[in-house]
Amino acid sequence: MAERCIGVDIGGTKVATAVLDGADLSTPKAVPTVTSSTEELLAQLAGAIDEAAAGDRDAIVGIGCPSVIDFATGTARSSVNIPLKDVPLRSALQERTGLPVVVDNDATVAALAEATDLATGRATVDNLIILTVGTGVGGGIVIGGRIYRGATGAAAELGHLIVAADLSRGAPAGQEDFPQPDSLEAHAAGGALGVLARARGFADGKACVAAAQAGDATAVDALRILGERLGVGIANLINAFDPDEVVVGGGVSAAGDLLLQPAIAVAWPLVLPGIGTATTIRIARHGNQAGVIGAALLARSELGAGSRLPR
Question: PANTHER family given for it (predicted)?
Answer without folding.
Answer: GLUCOKINASE (PTHR18964:SF173), ROK (REPRESSOR, ORF, KINASE) FAMILY (PTHR18964)
